[in-house]
Structure formats: structure tokens, C-alpha cells
Design brief:
Length: 296
């Protein structure tokens, strides 16, 4: 399976909407999500996410600012490493930032600039990390209006908005038109769920087997003790049958023991009789009298 992060960002960068309003909104989201340094008559937007500027360049010609030469505002390091900068006139920046904040396209833009998805061993985390409280409120407001549970915290100078529910993350990705990624995460979630159930079943079976073996070992010990001391002769017939059946079938389960008796009984009856035998042995070694004559 392809790496989800590779598919995510390839899909985010390369899909183009024919709707100019959506492109305007996405462009606005991208610009809002990038770190901004305000100067006298311009702003400097910078990011280590080179794909963000690739995306901006790709959709710019489909926005209402297409007559503006986007390339003239970009500053790329000669080494092609480090922060790419976009220097915009303040009026243009303000115009772009005023676009709609109520569409999925806008959230898609913000996500590209400052969003991430993490998939640890358990669960998924979709996170937006932004610098200002206003953008944080806009994102949480957007998510809340669509019934998507989220929370945020202020940490190290950033506001982190988190969505941890798997279904909610799939909904967000689908809303941002990242369908391939959402399907991959849904598939991965199903696989995780199946593996988890299988592991739980295996652990449960292992635990049951361990308990059965421990019970069988204890019952064998009691059976051998009764035979060795001759106390077996004083037991009622149904107890004798139980003891000899266990000796003949040392690894059988209680249910199997019950069916192997001359007069088959249920698992609960077998368990009850073994408890009686165990109590008899304990009482005997504690000085009890006539306990082996007890009836079930």
C-alpha cells in the first residue's frame, strides 16, 4: 500500500477545481494558514512547505487575481532549501484574506498550509497548528458548524486544533475533496479494527487455554492424591468417575470431561463437583472429619 502522507500531499497539490469561487476560497485559506510578517506596505509569507507554493502557483491562474503576476512575488532560496517567501502588497493580501471562510475549499487551503495527519499505533490525529487566535476560532467554528467534534490548546506560541475521531477525519478529508486519501484511511481503519478484534480473540483464547491447563493441572494433582492415599475408595461413585476420567484424559476441558463420564453432565456440574472435591481435600488437611462422605 502507498504511504498515506505521500498520497495525501500529491492529491492536495495536483487536483484543480473548475470553480473559480472555490479556488478563491482555497487561495484565501492557504494565505491565512502561512506564517505572516507584516511590514509597512507589504506582508511576507514564509513556509518550509514548498508544496504550498506549488499549489498556490497552480490555482492562481484560476482565481480572480489571475491578472497579477504571482511569480514576481515569490522568493525561492538559491539552494532550493529553507523557507520560500511570498511578498505581497498589503492591499492584495487583505483582498485575498477576505474571501469566504465558510467553504470546504477554504479549509482545504488552511489544511495545506498548517494541517497534518498523524497515525500512531492507535487511532488518528488530524491537527491544524496556527499562530493566531482568530484563525483558530475560524477553524473551530467551521468544524463545529458541521458537527465535527474538535478541541484546541495553546502551546509554545501556537494554537493546535485537533480532531481525533476516525470517522470525523474521513469526513473532513472527503469534504476537502481528498477522496483517495479518505478512502485509504477508511481502509486502513477497517484493517486496524479487524486486526484488533483478531488480537483480542487470540488473547482471550490464550487466556482461556491457560486457565483450562491450570485447572486441569490442579485436578490431576487432586486425583493423584486421592488415589495415592486410598481416599478414592470412600468417594461416591460420581466422584470416582470424575477422578478416573480426569486421570485418563489429563488435557480434556471441563466440557469434554462432562461428556466423557458414564453419565454425561454439563460443564457447570463438572465444575461444581471439582469444587466439592477441592473443598473436601482442603478440609481434610485442615483436620475435618467425614468430609469425603458428603453428597453432591
Amino acid at each position: 500500500m502507498e504511504r498515506i502522507d505521500s498520497v495525501l500531499w500529491d492529491e492536495w497539490v495536483n487536483s484543480i477545481s473548475p470553480d473559480k469561487k472555490e479556488n478563491d476560497a482555497e487561495c484565501s485559506g492557504i494565505i491565512e494558514g502561512i506564517f505572516v510578517a507584516r511590514k509597512m506596505d507589504h506582508v511576507v509569507l514564509s513556509s518550509l512547505r514548498l508544496w504550498v507554493f506549488r499549489r498556490l502557483y497552480a490555482i492562481w491562474k484560476y482565481t480572480r487575481w489571475s491578472d497579477v503576476n504571482f511569480s514576481s512575488y515569490m522568493r525561492v532560496p538559491k539552494s532550493k532549501k529553507g523557507r520560500v517567501k511570498l511578498i505581497l502588497p498589503f492591499e492584495l493580501y487583505e483582498d485575498i484574506s477576505r474571501s469566504s471562510r465558510t467553504s470546504w475549499a477554504w479549509l482545504r487551503g488552511v489544511f495545506g498550509s498548517c494541517g497534518s495527519i498523524f497515525w500512531p499505533k492507535n487511532g488518528y490525529h488530524l491537527t491544524f497548528r496556527v499562530k493566531n487566535k482568530q484563525l483558530c476560532d475560524n477553524i473551530t467554528g467551521f468544524l463545529n458548524s458541521r458537527g465535527i467534534k474538535n478541541n484546541y490548546r495553546h502551546r509554545s506560541g501556537n494554537y493546535e486544533i485537533q480532531v481525533r475521531n476516525h470517522e470525523a477525519i474521513v469526513t473532513i478529508l472527503a469534504g476537502m475533496d481528498l477522496m483517495k486519501t479518505s478512502l485509504m484511511i477508511e481502509e486502513k481503519g477497517i484493517i486496524r479494527s479487524v486486526k484488533s478484534r483478531v488480537n483480542m480473540q487470540v488473547n482471550c483464547d490464550t487466556s482461556n487455554i491457560k486457565k483450562s491447563l491450570q485447572a486441569a493441572e490442579k485436578q490431576l494433582h487432586i486425583s493423584k492424591l486421592l488415589v495415592k492415599t486410598g481416599l478414592i475408595d470412600d468417594l461416591p461413585v460420581h466422584f470416582k468417575d470424575l477422578v478416573f476420567t480426569r486421570l485418563n484424559y489429563p488435557s480434556a476441558t471441563l466440557r469434554e470431561i462432562g461428556q466423557l463420564l458414564p453419565k454425561p453432565v454439563s460443564k457447570s456440574t463438572v465444575e461444581y463437583r471439582w469444587n466439592k472435591l477441592e473443598n473436601m481435600i482442603n478440609s481434610l488437611f485442615d483436620g475435618g472429619t467425614n468430609i469425603l462422605q458428603a453428597k453432591s
